[in-house]
Amino acid sequence: MFHHSKLSCIALAAICAAGPLAAEDWPSAPLHLYVGFPAGSSPDTIARLVAEPLADALGQPVVVENKPGAGGVIGVQQMLADKNDGLSFAVTINGPLTTAQRLVEDLSYDPATDIAPVALIATSPLVLGVTSDFPADTVAGFIEQATENPGDIAYGSVGHGSGAHLTAELFANEAGVELYHIPFQSYAEVTTSIIGHEIDGGFMAPSAAMPHVEAGKMKILGITSSAPFPSLPDVPVMAGQSSLPEDFRAELWNGFIAPSGTDPEIIERLNSEIVEILAMPEVADKLLAMGWQVQPGSTEAFATRIAEDTALWGAVIDGIEARQ
Amino acid sequence: MTTYEGLMHGLSVALHPSVLVYSLFGAILGTFVGVLPGIGAMAAITLLLPITYYVSSEAALVMLAGVYYGAQYGGAVASILLRLPGTPQSAVTTLDGYPMAQNGRAGLALFTSMISSFSGSMLGIIVLIFLAEWLSGVATKFGAADYAAMMIMGLVAASTVGSGRPAKNLAMVVLGLIIGVIGTDVNSGLQRFTFGRTELMDGVNLVALAMGLFGAAEVISNIRNTERSTPVARIPLRELLPSRAELKRLPAPILRGSTLGSFFGALPGTGSTISSFLSYALERRVSREPKKFGTGQIEGISGPEAANNSASISAFVPTLTLGIPGDPIMALMLGALVIHGVQPGPMMLESNPDMFWGLVASFAIGNLFLLFINLPLIGIWVNMLRIPFRWLYPAIIVFISMGVYSVRGSSFDIAMVAGIGIIGYALSRAKFSPALLLLGFVLGPLIETNLRRAMLISRGDPMVFIERPIACVFVVLTAALILWSLISAFRKSQ
Questions:
Q1: Within an 8 Å CB–CB cutoff, is residue A70 touching chain B?
Q2: pLDDT for B42-76, tens place per residue?
Q3: Which residues of A touch B335 (CB under 8 A)?
Q4: Which domain holds residue B359?
Q5: Residue B240 within any structural domain of the chain
Q6: Interface of A with B in 80-119 (CB under 8 A)
Q7: Per-residue pLDDT tens for A298-318?
Q8: Among chain A residues, CA nearest to B336
Q9: What is the pLDDT of residues B194-240, one digit of tens each?
């Protein structure tokens, strides 16, 4: 008996010595949640929607810090520059984890080794919006037009290498057509240009297109998610239409990440809290109203998603670079 | 709902006590953040945004809008008294406001700025009520080629803003254009002159540039100043008021400035900084004594101040009617609307008349209120000059640092202010005009992106600038402007 309790004492001491961040007394101080976009942007709103119930669940404040710039990259950099003490995290869109390593020189971090995925939060599809008098009403019709007039259809995106640009290039590759790219800086500029009949269309966030569709100044031909989107049930899915493959899918997402080296127990705890938060109807409803669908899932599933999208967009970027 | 019914309904929303209190609070807060150099409406709205989750959507938006137009009033105060523009939009006001204050007429300069701001806002509100639909139609007709042609005209017209030698002015505009090149190239995604710094990928921060050129540079040049503070005699309120002759000089520049401001504010992406520069250039052109500009002309204050205030009101036209924000602050306002479940866009007048007309009515009430609180405040602002420099300038450096940091939480930007401040000091010692550098910096990227986009859309055919009627008008006007300058220069030399 004596022997046994002595052993367990040693075992306990060993556990205690493993670090001050043993899961039971974590978190002992406020959490810092970096967001690479300004206040009021959709990644910021999503981060705040999660941060509030998360603070309640953990019993410590979760401080959202906006570090906007470079397409969200600065937010991730700031998280990594912060002391890696199990208290600094970030909510980020897909770009800084899946395409920044290809598009940003001197990125200063490697998404594959410096980032520990915690949980996917939500995904958003893009819709293909075109001018109200575009001579096609379906994705198949659009592909037909593009096949007959190669390179004539001008589409707008929110910049070189943006989700809107890469999605359009993926679409063109898969459908075997050629489209003409005009980069803009915001969806607002793209939609104005479509309404003004300067360009023919573009892939964009549903929330950017819907007000103009309702006013009859634009039409939507299809959506890039693999299943119909709950808030836009009537918009047909692109996958499988005309020459597009059955598994065609292009989505933007927001996820919760930590610096690699963060205690796995902390990551597991956060993942389970976030999955619970995403199950709350009021959180899911608010996200859906902004055009985002909650995607509760495991840490491993999120890591797989990052790897899949890195490969998917990497191949698209290869194609763009080969043509330059 | 007719316009009249809408307006009456809006007044009932805006005069509801809970909404009214938020509106007035926003307007006062806006004035104060406008006065503080570097801390602008952007920072204040960002900080207030999370709080608005807990109030009604009308109250929230009315408060945020109050901060936005209130800041336009405050921005001029430090420009006039200390040559430190509170916001980039009021940088032009330093040109004639500061000399006026130096001549002991600070009170008159502030009065002119307040009354012009108020008149500009009111004319902007009238435009918003009656011409919103027409203006939003115009905004969608403006293509890339039209924007490029218009901006080039603006650059040519405003390049004469400085009072120094033409070659020196041109050098400053070009330096501004070059600084505007820094950042990611939109067309190719390549980085230009960023030296591997991700902080420079989105370009040099406008607030950091403006605060470095004007604020930090001004502080540095005052280190040599041995006087403890500017001598200011106590001014009775009566003497703040302009004489009858001076009063008569106000309406014309206010009208011209408001017209310019309303138009440019309604075009997404142009905004109030450009309209205040153009208004100043216009006043100089139409004046019989252009040589006197830069020495304390009333027109040099009233035109630009009316222009930036009317632009801040008409900037709501594309935001509310098209869902297209014209500048980062409007993008923030749009975000706030969406958070509160209001989707701005062509359907907003029908789907959310409460919000639309409530905002419009609150603009009128808020501006009236701002005029009444700001006129008595002039005496207090003037007393700011009594503060000894050794207290005032360190405080200004702190405020500038806070303000620049608040834009995007970047300590890199504070270092930028310090560096730009030293350059700005050297430039002002050599009698270069920093306002022109700012103009080149604001217009350069707009001209470049629109010019290149127009050429992309036309597939490389430059005839697009002649074939599109709007672009053609601006090209002809630009040519006429250059010709006129050449002829008048030729006549003078004879």
A1: yes
A2: 778 877 887 787 888 889 989 999 998 888 888 88
A3: 39-41, 45
A4: 3-229+246-493
A5: no
A6: 103-108
A7: 999 999 999 999 999 999 999
A8: A40
A9: 888 888 888 898 888 888 888 888 888 877 765 555 555 555 556 66
- The reply to whether omega before B242 is within 30° of 0 (cis) is no
A195/B347 Cβ within 8 A: no
C-alpha distances out from residue A239 to A139, A140, A225, Å: 10, 11, 8
On whether any CB of chain A is under 8 Å from the CB of B189, the answer is: yes
Q: Do domains A29-124+251-320 and A127-249 have the same CATH topology?
A: yes
Residues of B in contact with A290 (CB under 8 A): 338
CB contact under 8 A, A192 and B336: no
Strand order of the β-sheet with A180-183 is: A180-183, A154-157, A201-204, A127-131, A218-223
Task: Please indicate if any CB of chain A lies within 8 Å of the CB of B51.
Answer: no
Q: What is the pLDDT of residues B255-311, one digit of tens each?
A: 999 999 998 888 876 667 788 888 998 898 888 888 888 888 899 999 999 999 999
Would the CB atoms of A182 and B325 count as touching at under 8 Å? no
pLDDT at A38 over 80: yes
Give the residue, B336 or A2, on which the prediction is more confident: B336
Give residues 14 to 33 of A whose Cβ lies within 8 Å of B: none
What's the first-to-final CA gap in chain B, in angstroms?
63
Complex prediction ipTM: 0.79
Domain chopping of chain A, boundaries = 29-124+251-320, 127-249
CB A127 within 8 A of CB A206: yes
DSSP letters along B274-310, please?
Answer: HHHHHHHHHHHHH-S-GGGTTS--THHHHHHHHHHHH
Does residue B235 fall inside a structural domain?
Answer: no
Scanning B49-205, the segments in alpha helix (DSSP H) are 57-82, 93-102, 106-141, 144-158, 166-181
pLDDT(B334) > 50 = yes
* φ, ψ (nearest 5 deg) of residue B102: -65, -30
Closest residue by Cα to residue B39 from B314, B369, B326, B398: B398
**Could you name the CATH architecture of A127-249?**
3-Layer(aba) Sandwich (3.40)
Domain count, chain B: 1
Contact B293, B96 (CB under 8 A): yes
Chain B touched by A285 (CB under 8 Å): no
Query: Does the domain formed by A29-124+251-320 have CATH 3.40.190.150?
Result: yes
Q: Do A70 and B202 touch (CB under 8 A)?
A: yes
Please report the pLDDT score of residue B151 as a whole number: 85
Q: Which residue, chain included where needed, has tokens 């222009």?
A: B307
pTM, entire model: 0.81
* Residues B210/B78, Cβ–Cβ less than 8 Å: no
Residue B234 lies in a domain: no
